């Protein structure tokens, strides 16, 4: 299907007219009606500040505007990530993916593709429970740490990268990075996808700590998760929080019967795979000396 490219000035004009707003209303407080008219007729350049102002006046978020501009199609980089997970089933498929990413990395000199190589290679061996045969694991860990440590203000990409590769890092590093960087993202808690990303990280970190019997690292994350899950819209992570409160309290004396209430709720809601994750983590924790 052919995608018709619509210019920004055409989109702004369409959105304004659909809402019955005048050019003067859009301009008020920042620019002139004549400037808006020139922009809509000729596509003259406007600043990011002006664009944000127009969207604010029309009650349109930046995310919504981006979605409109892209015709609902995922950006190239996001699509590569989505497609990448489909290549983790076999080693030959992984190699195809890594070759494609390597070509993109060399052709663009964009570190994004190099970081994806590390992510998908590490995920492949982790999902196969075969990290001992990942000959690149030490170098990959150092590369990811070097990248993440150099960024003070993370975005969703950095949070996702770290979250997906938690298994590479020791508990001290996970906790230190959480305190140094991820807690800053708590200021975005009213932005729905950031809140989901952060609660997802907390859940994954708690599972990692449990499997390692590193109970001392759980307390601060459980406390923050309690605060984030006061909203009833986050029922799933509220159950996660309640479950790990019990795990933290019992630690090595935990009996899975202690989690029967939480498991019954999850099973009732259709989250059987999540219950299986708890059983798997429990068995791994018990197998540790």
What does this structure look like?
It is a single chain. This protein is an all-alpha fold. The chain folds into three domains: 8-69, 434 Repressor (Amino-terminal Domain) (Orthogonal Bundle), CATH 1.10.260.40; 75-150, no CATH class; 163-289, no CATH class. 66% of the residues lie in helices and 0% in strands. The protein contains 16 helices and no strands. It has helices spanning 8-18, 23-27, 33-42, 48-57, 62-69, 76-84, 91-108, 111-127, 137-149, 156-164, 171-180, 192-211, 218-228, 235-250, 260-268, 272-287. α8 (111-127) crosses α9 (137-149) and α13 (218-228) packs antiparallel against α14. The longest helix is centred in the last third of the chain and has 20 residues, at 192-211. It starts with 7 loop residues before the first helix and ends with a helix. The model has no long low-confidence stretch (mean pLDDT 90).
